[in-house]
Amino acid sequence: MSKRDEYLAGARAGIPVLLGFIPVGIAYAIMARQAGFDIFETCFRLCS
Predict the structure, then answer these.
(1) pTM above 0.90, yes or no
(2) Where in the chain does DSSP place strands (E)?
(3) Do residues 32 and 41 lie in contact, with contact meaning Cβ atoms separated by under 8 Å?
(4) Which residues contact 33 (CB under 8 A, 6 or more apart)?
């Protein structure tokens, strides 16, 4: 198996995880915007 084939197999295996993170990220972004965070804070703010 070549490196390219290994990479593609890993990418295919990670698709379900990626699909699970997308709705969580969208929900976080909606809640952060409703809380008054701007785009920078929504993307980079850490809990204080």
Answers:
(1) no
(2) none
(3) yes
(4) 42
